[in-house]
């Protein structure tokens, strides 16, 4: 494992290895056991989109590992004025030990990895959000004990979260059902991958159908970053694609609910369901820290 660009690149064994290390680092942090695996190392964090969790968890995580994080807003970098990513990659590789980048196009992240010589971590693109899904898998295993026999259901937009959840959940052995409106399905590359898992993958436009006997229900915003101009159109297209009490009644009675956050109450999830599952959702947010520390150690430790 040289980079974390997308869940499609990871083997099932690599995912489980990261989750095991994340559990260990969480234990060490909670018990005051120092774990300075990245002492003296630097991580550049390039942000072309807003962030609360990704920025703070990477920054704090790097500090806890003994390293130094640099926040690099694209507004202040030459990349924001058109310097090619190929050049940025080759320059930053000479200063830093790793780069985390949040941007629009997946190609930009892949190019950074191709031209740079240090590990690249995808902190969200329009295509995927692997760091979030590693934290989600960590949280599912923490609450459910194992992935065996579990069904994950995703309701809403076939977006970056849906893409990474489909791949990640199938790779660890879960069944996956997604319910998206016809015009908002995941890209062909993801659907083709999922079809390889036979009847462990189901795609429908009926949230009720997808939620039947689910163990984990997940949703995300109807309009992602960069799609603000489509918000009104999307509000109409996604009406009914909501996690609410009626939908929860389709799932197992002990089903958990996750949301990567930020959440829009009464759009993709009701306030009532959100608050009933707040302990899971905020553990998920915390687990960003532990999962990303594990990724950084795997990629950047000597
Ligand atoms: N879930 C997530 O990535 O949150 P931020 O956008 O706040 O980083
Ligand atoms: N799909 C959302 C996820 C935010 C963490 C977005 O891309 O804005």
Strand tally, please? Answer: 9
Number of domains: 2
Distance N terminus to C terminus?
13 Å
Looking at CATH, which topology of the largest domain would you report? Rossmann fold
Largest sheet: 5 strands, parallel
So how many helices?
Answer: 12
Q: Architecture of the largest domain, according to CATH?
A: 3-Layer(aba) Sandwich
What would your notes on this structure say?
The chain is an alpha/beta fold. The chain folds into two domains: 3-129 and 288-301, 3-Layer(aba) Sandwich (Rossmann fold), CATH 3.40.50; 132-285, 3-Layer(aba) Sandwich (Rossmann fold). The chain contains twelve helices and nine strands. It has helices at residues 12-30, 53-64, 85-92, 106-115, 130-144, 160-171, 188-195, 207-211, 231-237, 245-248, 271-276, 278-300; strands spanning 42-47, 68-73, 98-102, 120-122, 151-155, 175-179, 201-204, 216-219, 256-259. Helix 1 crosses helix 5. The chain binds phosphoric acid mono(formamide)ester and norvaline. Its main location: cytoplasm. Residues 2-142 form the Aspartate/ornithine carbamoyltransferase carbamoyl-P binding domain. Keywords: Cytoplasm, Transferase. L-ornithine binds at residues 160, 220, 224-225.
């Amino acid at each position: 494992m040289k980079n974390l660009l997308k869940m499609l690149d990871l083997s099932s064994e690599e995912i489980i290895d990261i989750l095991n290390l994340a559990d260990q680092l969480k234990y060490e942090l909670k018990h005051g056991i120092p774990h300075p695996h990245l002492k003296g190392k630097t991580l550049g964090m390039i942000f072309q989109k807003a962030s609360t969790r990704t920025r703070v968890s990477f920054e704090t995580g790097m500090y806890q590992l003994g390293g130094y994080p640099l926040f690099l807003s694209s507004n202040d970098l030459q990349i924001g004025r058109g310097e090619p990513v190929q050049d940025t990659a080759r320059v930053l590789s000479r200063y830093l030990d790793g780069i985390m980048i949040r941007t629009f196009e997946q190609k930009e992240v892949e190019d950074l990895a191709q031209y740079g010589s240090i590990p690249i971590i995808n902190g969200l693109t329009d295509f995927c959000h692997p760091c979030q899904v590693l934290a989600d898998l960590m949280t599912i295993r923490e609450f459910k004990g194992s992935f065996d026999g579990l069904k994950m259901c995703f309701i809403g937009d076939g977006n970056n979260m849906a893409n990474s959840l489909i791949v990640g959940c199938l790779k660890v052995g879960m069944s996956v059902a997604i319910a998206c409106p016809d015009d908002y399905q995941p890209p062909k590359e993801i659907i083709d991958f999922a079809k390889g898992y036979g009847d462990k993958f189901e795609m429908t436009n009926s949230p009720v159908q997808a939620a039947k006997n689910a163990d984990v229900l997940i949703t995300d915003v109807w309009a992602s970053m960069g799609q603000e101009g489509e918000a009104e159109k999307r509000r109409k297209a996604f009406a009914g694609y909501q996690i609410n009490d009626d939908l929860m009644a389709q799932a197992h009675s002990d089903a958990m609910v996750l949301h990567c956050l930020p959440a829009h109450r009464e759009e993709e999830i009701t306030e009532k369901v959100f608050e009933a599952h707040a302990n899971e959702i905020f553990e998920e947010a915390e687990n960003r820290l532990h999962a990303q520390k594990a990724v950084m150690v795997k990629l950047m430790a000597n």
